Amino acid sequence: MTQPPDSIEDSVISAILGGRLRPGTRLGEAKLAEVYGVSRTRVREAMMRLETRGIVHVSARRGWFVVEPSATEARAAFQARRVIETGMLRDLHTLPEHTLRGDAVAHLRAHVEEEREALHTGHVGSRTCLLGDFHIHLAHAFGNPFLTDILRDLTARTTLVSMLYQSDQDAAASSDDHAGIVTLLADGDYAGAARLMDEHIRRVEDGLDLAAAPDPLAGLREILSPGAPA
Amino acid sequence: MTQPPDSIEDSVISAILGGRLRPGTRLGEAKLAEVYGVSRTRVREAMMRLETRGIVHVSARRGWFVVEPSATEARAAFQARRVIETGMLRDLHTLPEHTLRGDAVAHLRAHVEEEREALHTGHVGSRTCLLGDFHIHLAHAFGNPFLTDILRDLTARTTLVSMLYQSDQDAAASSDDHAGIVTLLADGDYAGAARLMDEHIRRVEDGLDLAAAPDPLAGLREILSPGAPA
DNA sequence: TGCACCAATCTTGTATACAAGACTGTTGAG
DNA sequence: CTCAACAGTCTTGTATACAAGATTGGTGCA
């Protein structure tokens, strides 16, 4: 939760969530070591931790790369999120006392409001970041730290998927879903919230063009597009 | 999946699942390096990966230790498993084609049979190992590699919990639950299987004495008990 | 005796050195 | 001109060296 302790990992993850690091990007140990002002040792440690979390992978003696989920992996990641998030919401009604922690609904409502604003200002980076954060906040509200961590990593993965398969997923529609879920939660209709969450994640997944093989030259094309600086 | 690549991690995990490594056990880098015939570097890498998976933790300049889940963490780990495993089973009916992979039910049936035999022979180590493996196999049958990995680690955690809070959880009752789940799956009654799974995990959790603080001297007492070698 | 202080030892934390493989660009033959 | 072979460079893989903190055991004072 704090900044200094493992800032390399958090830094990479937030760069991914914010769309500043694209799938397939190479992360050289030496470069990162220089950026963070530490030796390669600590960079390697951070990379390995990120690897076990499924965020980056290593190609032997070539370097570390932000993962590029295949279509199969993409589907699996969304399925995993669907299973866990709907399971979480459905579990709420079995917890008579716990329910959601404190002012969770109020926080979520405020978050959805933030999403709305980001939609209007149109800042694409913070927009996708906020849309992903909603699910993490929801997990946090549920109060199970294990599930929160798991969903944080899965969300990072699906964010990468969205970047790869260029969904024109209506950000507005997503935010509407989020608002609907919060409303149902406020009413205590957990089963309904779970159902809507299921539809929501399916909708996002269906918005992706998983049939289209990811273009390995995407980055290159962008650079070579007319108007690029010499 | 293969043996040689990351055998240190797998070795530690299987030692935990098999009850050969107890919570709180210290894992010295130098010792492990000698055992595995490598330098401390690789041991450290393995430990860090296990740390991000929540299996071990490091105490600054004191060493690596197998985690000792607190009562709160124990409850959270069981809740996470319940959410995910029931969510998985409930999701089966929404997958018209997929359902369970191939001969999964047959495999699970065979596994339950193995459990029964282990119960009779009474080998305690392999027994707890098998009872945990059932859930991992079930996840594998579902076919989502992410969920399989997640549940593997969560199961390792709950195994540690069971060791700490000395549940007299009837192994026989657990195995009966497993058998019941397999039967319901074979009948295609996924909702029923999910319900039974929910009860099953609750039962195991309730069998634990989470109120009893774990005894930090357990290992010592055992060594000093009458009959121990000089 | 009881306790505070201190030195010796051990263990992890971090950096660095070197080995091994992958990629790049050049060169020379056909 | 095309392409195969090769040397050079770059990057990761692994080990080792040293620094920093923790623990332990001993010593001396009250």
UniProtKB/TrEMBL annotation, chains A, B:
PANTHER family attached to this UniProt entry: HTH-TYPE TRANSCRIPTIONAL REPRESSOR NANR, TRANSCRIPTIONAL REGULATOR, GNTR FAMILY
Keyword field contains DNA damage: no
Domain of life: Bacteria
Family matches, as InterPro entries: GntR_C (IPR011711), TF_FadR/GntR_C (IPR008920), Tscrpt_reg_HTH_GntR (IPR000524), WH-like_DNA-bd_sf (IPR036388), WH_DNA-bd_sf (IPR036390)
This protein's UniProt keywords: DNA-binding, Transcription, Transcription regulation
Record's keyword annotation contains Disulfide bond: no
GO terms for MF: DNA binding; DNA-binding transcription factor activity
Pfam families, per database record: FCD (PF07729), GntR (PF00392)
Domain HTH gntR-type: residue ranges: 2-69
Protein name: DNA-binding GntR family transcriptional regulator
